[in-house]
Batch of 4 targets.
Target 1
Amino acid sequence: MGDTPAHGETADSAPATHAAQPGGGIRPVMRRHPRLTLAVLAIAFVAAASGGLQTYRAVTLASAQAAYNDSVASSLEAQASAGADVASAEAVLTAAETTLADSEGRVLSEEPRTTLAAALDVAETQLTAAHEELVAVEHGIDAPTTDAAFFSPGDGLRAGSAALTALHFEAATELTTITDALAGPVQAVNDAVALWQAEYDRMVSERYTNNTHATGWYPELDECIGSVDVTAHYGVPTIAEHWSCGGRDFPDDAGTIITLTGVHAGSYRVEGIAAMLNASRNSTSDLPQGFDLLYQTCQNGQSSSMSFTGLTRVDA
């Protein structure tokens, strides 16, 4: 008779093999557009690779930056320590230079001062080297470090770290020797000055001293208690004393250092007798000029032999 559905089938159902292959169905993308598919896959791969590279760069740069920051911090710490060493050495050097300057003219022998001056020259050379070293290191620390390498991330920072590690403060470290190097010569100069001072004090204690007790003329001179300032009478700075009251004892050897007290107090160097005048023939216009002070007395009490000794004020 006609065809009839098999057992388990209906007129509306089809064989299972037909369901897997629909008539006129869609083919897979790769089969229909293989080039497009490859392009998409390539883009996906590049994107994935790029993302991985960016992550790698970020991690590598972060690590290099951290190491560079540590190098900068260590360099700054070392720089600060070296700067302290330089400041300390400068203080020692300045003190030694002051000792040398203050001792000028106040030693019996120049040998200690010469030795100290030589030690100062060496110390100044060391200090100059340390200053130059600090400047070079400062420039190294402040130098900008860029890192533009795309495929070598962190190379610039690593190079910067290496450069900072190479910086050194050898000259500054050696400055610690300056204190010991100058201590001996400085002490020697101080000892020499102390010796000079003791001798000076002895000489001062034995030095001729004259007291100018008043300003005036004959009434004050006749008091016979010291010299008298007679500047107003002579017109030039002059002190005077009767021969018998002390004039005979006044030193007239050139180069002698004397001490005056009272009027015109101070230390003076005797320049010798500058003029010998006669009261009956000479006038004040004949008085010697160019001295800080004159000392006048009548030799052997005679007005015909009035001696005028030139005096120059000195610091000693």
Target 2
Amino acid sequence: MSIFLLEAFNWTNLLQPQFYVENGGLWLLLFVVFAETGLFVGFFLPGDSLLFVAGIYAHEITRKTGEVIPGLAHQFLDTIGLGMIRNEWVDLLVLSALIACMGILGNMVGYWTGRKVGPAMYQWRDRLLFKKKYLHQAREFYEKHGGLAVIGARFLPLIRT
């Protein structure tokens, strides 16, 4: 099986959301949601498009071989001993709740990291990707627009990026 994965792997697969769902399942999906919101390195992951694919695969997954297996939410329900529940609405609600929890947890980790590292950044010297000028501009922006900017950025991905 691992030899087959190595032969079939191509780096461009990492840009395809269905690759994460078919090969990593629910746990990789939840990690991507967490990393996108909570870890600095998560910005390149396909979070928004991955959510659409997760919704498609919430109830059942059809593999390339034609095999149909239970979907992403069923993987979690089976883990906690509720695998006998087979309803597409329950699957969608469970998946939505898990994704929301991981997004909130990721936001909390991102906030904590910013709270710990943020003040020290004012002592850093300018580098290729870091300029104090940008740090001051961001601070002024958030002081001016406050929480609306943070909440609004969540729903406007073009501005957020």
Target 3
Amino acid sequence: MAEEEKHNQKSEPKTTTKSAIKEKTTKEVVKDQNWQLVYLLEQFKKESDRAAVILVASIIDETLQTLLKSYLVPVPSSEDSLFDNATSPLSTFSAKIDITYRIGLISGKFARDLHIVRKIRNSFAHDIYGCSFSNGSVKSRIKELENSFIISQNIDNIKREDIKDGERGMFLYLTSAMIWEFNSLIKDRKEIKESNLEWFYTEKKQ
């Protein structure tokens, strides 16, 4: 009976709370959430090279917008003039990256790497027939991303040689990590509250 209880205790899934994450090392946190990266990679594997790149960039673009909307003072209408029109100031991928960095939601290094992803996306989007992961400029940019990341050092069971499909596999692996990070930021983010009225808008108390 004691052995059965001991077995049941071992098989119980562990939940990761925000406070627990703070106490863990980066390596432990990434390992706990590695299944999310694997899931994203499996989804992207189903797509062609061009479709995979454009899909990844679209997801990152959308999660950037979700992060910003979760942080900024909400608007009362369904349409947000900052994002939703072609001429909106934050309608482009580039503008979303820049503002997310400038208001302190991501680091400068993360912003730089997101711009590399954006440039890779543009290469595939604009060169319909000639672009591939074997393209020299694409390979160079993926190498920049790989050199920038240290995530592979934080997961003991994933090594560079374990990431299949060459540059494609590395690109999908690194961008999946980015998407996971954005989803974590969205969950933990508290929105800015609208400011109180300035003194010249309030009636003087008698």
Target 4
Amino acid sequence: MKSIFLSIIIIMLTHSSFAQKFDKRQISQKSELNLSFESKFRGIIKNDVIYYVEKDMQTLSAYYNGKPKWKTNIIAICGKPYIGKPAIRVIKLKTDKMFVVFGKHSFAEVDLSTGKTKYLGSD
């Protein structure tokens, strides 16, 4: 019985230690964030979920109550952009999707509930 209880405690402690520690001052209330011009912000909050661009500027994560909900690497899934740096430049929230601009003119769509990422193309 003690070993089961101890195992549960260890699992709970390790799970909580993986929660992202980000600066809440970097979270915007806006529905669109241009990281090129608004460098002090890195995320958007909507319905208690924080959508956050990680330090590598390629990964978009969702956190609910400070714990990871999903994580997607836009560049790894969509490929490097033809023009510009392989980094997220703009995130824009819609009802159930997030639109992402990366590089100069490359576009992706992310499902807000699952994190499933779809490459939309480049212009």
